[in-house]
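Can anyone check this?
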Amino acid sequence: MHPIFADSGYRNLYDEEIGQMIHQGCSSSDWNLVKVSSDFTPDNIQNCKFSGHIRLNGFNGTVNLTGGITFKTGLYNAWLHNCEIGKNALIYNVRSYIANYKIERDVVIHNITTLAVDGYTSFGNGVQVEAINEGGGRAIPIYDYLSAHVAYIMSLYRHRPALINLLKEMVLNYAAYIKSNRGTIGANSKILNCNTILDVNVGPGATIDGAKKLRNGSVNSNFEAPVTIGEGVIMENFIVCSGSRIMDATLISNCFIGQGCILEKHYSAVNSLFFANCQGFHGEACSIFAGPYTVSHHKSTLLIAGMFSFLNAGSGSNQSNHLYKLGPIHQGIMERGGKTTSDSYLLWPSRIGAFSLVMGRHYKHCDTTDFPFSYLIESKDESILVPAINLKSIGTIRDTQKWPERDIRTDSNLLDLINFNLLSPYTVHKMITGRNKLLAIRESSGAAANSYSFDKMKIENHALQRGVELYEMAIWKFLGNSIITRLQNKKLHSVDDIRKALIPDTPVGMGPWVDISGLICPYEALDKLLRSIEDLHITSLEEVNSALAVFHKNYYTYEWTWAADTLKSFYGKNVNQFTEEDIIRIVEKWKESVLKIDSFLYEDARKEFSMSKMTGFGMDGTDGAREVDFAQVRGEFESNKAVIIIREHMKKKEKLGDEICELMLKIKNHSGEKILN
């Protein structure tokens, strides 16, 4: 018997059933190899050829096709080889054949050419994807449950070869475990109007309609988060995760496509990784690591040989990964929240700091990692750095609000653990470093200088001064937020209660933090996990993912440890020595910073409603038609959603700050009364 089938629950065909099927145009090289379930009837089996081991279930239902057509389930005009067909499936018009597949219940396969498994395959698992560096050296073996965080470690921690080898071995062991000479088409899936599908596993609930060629891959659909693959799509050596959509003649080769991704409108990608909620329309990706929310919507945009996350790529954005010497060996990193304007260009290797905007063409190797929330602008072939200016941008705030709202993942098992925080120990540590560097630059060159040079970039004097001020505001905003959150909803009656509440719950969190492609955690915690893998204490991918989930869950616990340690250096006093006056000073500084940053955002939003922004409105009207037309399309400034949020935020934070200060004064006065008594 063929090793992929079992006889349990199946019987041989009766002679009269064989006779009826022959009468209905069916044939078999050996009818003894065709076995059926107890509820099988041959009524809906027409013009079919059977070879190898066949298992058939009952077909007594109906299927509704597009256009209101109702069709009886069954097998019509098909050649099946070594197949098991589930209950109430419909297979209609197979131009070539279906070979070596388990087709589960309620599947519809209509008007296809070939669906086959050719020998043993791991269905895309174990495929090496040459991401980040097109010249090789960072290849990642993909697998069904790859997360952005594990991929980050495998791609960037090559300085720990034992770790990389062990992680790769785990993936390859999984690929070997699922290796099979039989594929599966999951229950309730639809495969319609397709050409060749070879060595592909398809999960439940998927729709594949009009695909031109799919080869060596997994479509990991499920009922919670179905996958859709549309017309003209060509994919080879791939994995597509739950809830994703690949449409409109998109071309995919050697790629992992994570949960909730959308690739459409002739997008092209090779040797690339796309994680949660990425979007690619029209453009091209080559050897990229697209962390969560990497978005490219424009036909002329090329992303190449880089690592990105929360990126918004402008039209015509481009990067160069070789200097025409040793080939395409260079790479670049844009940290979370980056934006590129139209026709921007970066010469790799470069590294762009978090939440920064790149404008113009940059022919020098820029490194702005310690200057998050900045502009990098090109002027007369010079790269101009404007530190911290994005902290004043309403667009930055809008981005952080929209990302959680645009999470289209509906799978209960989320592969990528995403921290959406704008301010975190990761970004604030960089701001502290950036502020110190700006002060050092000013001190070394003199406060009266018109501009300063720093690492192939130019910083104008006024931009440097403003950068220092903005970083200080953001740092106080974060530290104040942390201390207020720590004290909120606590029963505080004395300074001892305050100090007790401020004691960190764990020593983990001090020192540098890392953004593991969406998951923010202390490097100390990550390093401990990596050493556990190297020491063979952790030996499975499930254990790695569980440890990462613990980091994500404990983010705010770790965050306070970092904030408390930073307050010691930035404020100059240990939290276990804080008095009521210290809390009041910090909260007042926090309130001042929050309100000032919010006022910057408010004024930035107002610019969007200025007269200059109304150009082109009220085309042929007079007497205020422009303003009326603008208001009808864009709305009024005061009723704008973002503006309302800012105003409410200012009121809420001012009230919160006042409440904390009043509580501190109350505790102080109460303690004073006790001393007098």
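Reply from J.R.: I decoded it. The chain has 13 helices and 42 strands.
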